[in-house]
Write a structure and sequence with these properties.
Helix content is 57%, strand content 1%. It is mainly alpha-helical. A hairpin with an 8-residue loop joins strand 1 and strand 2.
């Protein structure tokens, strides 16, 4: 509860930070501010608290992974063993270009098909009317913000006729919304990284992108308030109709667009990872000369993110790890950040599950320098006469998008109470191997085991076990914390023979000496060579 309160005050703290850096502090759209806060809390309550909302986003989560599994069939058909992920038979290892990026082709085709049949435009119109009517923003920017919930830089095409007459505040809002959300085509890629350790990841990425839309509107209008009169203020703007002639054409052209997206992601990663490595070598050399070795752009930026991460409600023991993830996203995109977060969950680096939940929401956005160039360049290509204005508001929009993403992370921290919908699997622990008893004694004595410690290990037919506290339990993995209670077996009727096992010193946990009982003793089970409890 303590960290939930921290996240609650942190949510409003990000609003205060945006106001402090505002270009016009006296110009505040109270309607936009109040409705923006209300919409975010309503969305958060639906996702985390309402059973119907949980079931709905769980359904979306299952749908995304179902599509992803079908996409893998096509990828495996084209690339063969190169597409098999680690852990599967005949897998050759990890290949990002063959196992992750090709899924964007299939999802881009699906999104294009949904556009053609009118499903995606219907969703966009719904959110556009919601933002225009409640938050009192222009119809053009609300339409573009709504489009950014589902698509990426191509969302600017929906408002192409209005770009030339938009105000600087509207341009900043469009850039902010584009960088504060993620496209549905890459959502599946990030979900595939975290599927094993965070099974409900797809549903939460969808909800994070939805919640970030009003957050982007609110933060952008605080940093650069509207001082002019937008042309489409309070008006409903319709998006352009589908340019596909039929369903087959939408699938084919969507696949081509997805291929360009996959290649673009790979090319961007190659370029910026290399550039950051070059810059880090210079920063590391400078730090070594000044007596501060092992410095990098990410480590320096982590110091700036650290207090903001604490403001989101991340526990102190995980704050530095999450700060490093956010700093890495600023320079290298969110793609490697989700990969690193997946490794952290698998290795147990994060101590508190709420840290992982907040990190998932805070990282869900294109708020980084590579994306800044993509969005500014894409919009400047559509409206060349606005290139100077777009460049002028670019870094302010990047700052606004970063704050909006972190506000979304704080909102997740407010509502997170360890619900079963946020299922985060802990790192796998080693278990004792199965070894059937080679005994002529056919009678099996039933055992009662505490439900929370039930294991699949099969042991010899014993009723009473005596162990020293230093020795690990026979039925528990060797990595089990020492604070957990040892398993208790209830004794059987007196007519049954009893075997007492006395433990050896803690230095020899794998050896057991059996004391001879007064009655006939059942033979002990044979154990495989190298067996360890």
């Amino acid at each position: 509860m303590y960290f939930n309160i921290v996240s609650f005050f942190g949510f409003f703290g990000f609003i205060l930070v945006a106001w402090l850096f505002s270009s016009h502090r006296r110009v505040i759209n109270l309607s936009l501010l109040l409705w923006g806060v209300l919409l975010q809390f309503v969305f958060g309550a639906v996702v985390f608290l309402l059973p119907a909302g949980r079931r709905f986003f769980s359904f979306l989560n299952d749908g995304v992974f179902s599509l992803l599994s079908h996409a893998n069939e096509g990828v495996s058909f084209v690339f063969g063993r190169l597409a098999l992920p680690p852990g599967q038979k005949d897998s050759l290892g990890v290949f990002l270009a063959f196992q992750v990026l090709p899924a964007a082709v299939f999802f881009a085709a699906i999104v294009a098909f949904l556009y053609h049949i009118g499903f995606m435009p219907m969703l966009i119109r719904f959110f556009s009317r919601l933002f225009t009517g409640l938050m009192r923003v222009s119809g053009a920017e609300s339409l573009c913000v709504s489009s950014n919930i589902f698509v990426g830089v191509e969302s600017s095409l929906t408002i192409r006729p209005y770009l030339s007459t938009m105000t600087r505040s509207e341009l900043c809002t469009i850039l902010t919304a584009g960088m504060a959300t993620i496209a549905s085509t890459v959502l599946a890629l990030y979900a595939s990284f975290l599927q094993q350790s965070f099974p409900q990841i797809a549903g939460h990425l969808i909800s994070a992108s939805i919640v970030s839309a009003p957050a982007a509107l609110m933060i952008s209008k605080l940093l650069l308030p509207e001082t002019e009169t937008p042309q489409t203020l309070g008006q409903e703007v319709k998006s352009e109709e589908s340019h596909y002639e039929n369903s087959i054409e939408s699938l084919i052209k969507g696949s081509m667009e997805g291929a360009k997206l996959a290649v673009g992601i790979g090319a961007t990663l190659i370029t910026f990872v290399s550039l950051v490595a070059l810059a880090n070598s210079f920063v590391g050399w400078t730090g070594q000369s000044l007596g501060a070795p092992h410095q990098s752009l990410q480590s320096l930026a982590s110091y700036a993110f650290y207090p903001l991460v604490l403001l989101m409600g991340v526990p102190t023991q995980d704050a530095w790890s999450v700060s490093h993830l956010l700093a890495t996203r600023t320079f290298l995109t969110e793609f490697p950040c989700y990969l690193e977060l997946s490794k952290m969950l698998q290795q147990g680096t994060l101590h508190d599950p709420r840290s992982a939940v907040i990190a998932v929401y805070a990282l869900c956005g294109f708020a980084h320098i590579p994306s800044l160039g993509i969005f500014v360049g894409g919009m400047a290509a559509i409206a060349p006469e606005r290139a100077r204005d777009l460049s002028a508001v670019a870094f302010r929009a990047l700052f606004a998008a970063t704050l909006a993403c972190m506000m979304t992370g704080a909102l997740a921290g407010v509502f997170y109470h360890g619900q079963d919908t946020i299922l985060i699997r802990q790192p796998a622990r080693r278990t004792a191997p199965q070894h059937p008893a080679n005994s002529a004694h056919t009678h099996k004595s039933p055992r009662r085991i505490a439900p929370q410690h039930r294991t699949t290990s099969k042991l010899p037919d014993v009723r009473t076990t005596t162990r020293s506290p230093a020795q690990p339990s026979l039925t528990q993995p060797a990595l089990q914390p020492a604070a957990q209670p040892a398993l208790q077996r209830t004794s059987q009727p007196a007519a049954q023979p009893t075997l007492h096992i006395t433990s050896q010193p803690a230095a020899q946990p794998h050896k057991q000496d059996s004391a001879q009982p007064t009655n006939k003793t059942p033979p002990t089970a044979s154990r495989p060579a190298g067996w360890r409890p």
